[in-house]
Amino acid sequence: MPDGGAKTHRGNHLYWLFLMIVREQVSLAPLTTLGVGGPARYFVEAAHVGEVVEALRFAKERGLPVFVLGGGSNLVVADRGYDGLVLKIALRGVECFAEGSESVFRAAAGEDWDGLVARGVAEDCAGIECMSGIPGTVGGTPVQNVGAYGQEVAGTICEVEALERQSLQVVRFTNQDCGFSYRASRFNATDRDRYIILRVSYSLRRGGKPSLRYADLQRALADFPAHPSLLQVRDAVREIRRSKAMLLVEGDEDCHSAGSFYKNPAVSQQDFEALDERLRSRGLAMPSYPSGDETRKLSAAWLVEHAGFHKGYARGAAGISSKHALAIVNRGGATAAEIVALKDEIQARVLAEFGIELVPEPVFLGF
Questions:
Q1: Does 270 reside within a domain?
Q2: Nearest Cα to 259, choosing from 182, 328, 336, 312?
């Protein structure tokens, strides 16, 4: 371990800065669930807040852009890699304390998300059980307002602790401060790249009933008692995700994806009615549901399939999951260019067929 000064070994591309290790030309593909992309020019894995600060200083001194990496589950890295510093957040630790009828789980950004869900369920605390099996880390959940099967983290987050990149000051945000909306927050919208999430606090209901709003989940639990437990709901959600290759399972090639590649599009009620009328004249019934503000949300998966991209579709080494039409997969040896070409083809066909522009969910790095 180094002493208080900086120590450099340029021959083998290893640098010590206080307690921080900076590496060069680190392959990013193995750090993502999609498994494509080139190397990071510099790479730091930060297990302490001080290392996050040092990494930002390192980058600023050299005029380098910084990308913050969590679990790599929602990321497409360019084949040429990233000509900057990739900062992997590996902060760990979970605290739990009572506040009235709620239990607050304060988790470091590098904690495994599904592990936190499992702990909440084990302690009979409701509010995040339907988000079981989602890959990635805690730090990514407020950024994208992660959600699934009728729940989203905006419903439970009570505080987000973040580091402001320029001032290097720690800032705390309430739920209202975060500006949550569908798969979005201030952290990936108005304040994109301004903050690094350090910790997130979730307020869960002790002894609360599980959420059963999602139709697939209701069907999966049809044979269970009238009031299934949190654990039964968690197990059912994970099984649904496994059946759609949305649960990371060793040896399943359909799991080499970035999850759902497109957001479910929302259109005005007027536009929906016009589109629905055109489709019904062709004998097609498009699924939709109200999403507030006189808009309707459409099924991106339905649009993809009815634009001609069936489950199991292949385009070289890239393709579509055999279990879920929204998952673009790497069938082995795919390049980022092949993944993006398929993405572009799907978007163009859906736009031409339905007049709907699909918006990708993953982050694209190095393009």
A1: yes
A2: 328
